Amino acid sequence: MKKIPVLLALALAAILPARADDAAASQHTKGPLPIHISHGEAIAIKDYLVTGKTTVFDFYSEYCPPCRALGPFLEQLHKGREDIAVVKVDINRPGVEGIDWPSPVAKEFGLDSIPHLEVYAPDGTLRAKDDDARNMVISWIEALPK
Question: pTM for the full model?
Answer without folding.
Answer: 0.81
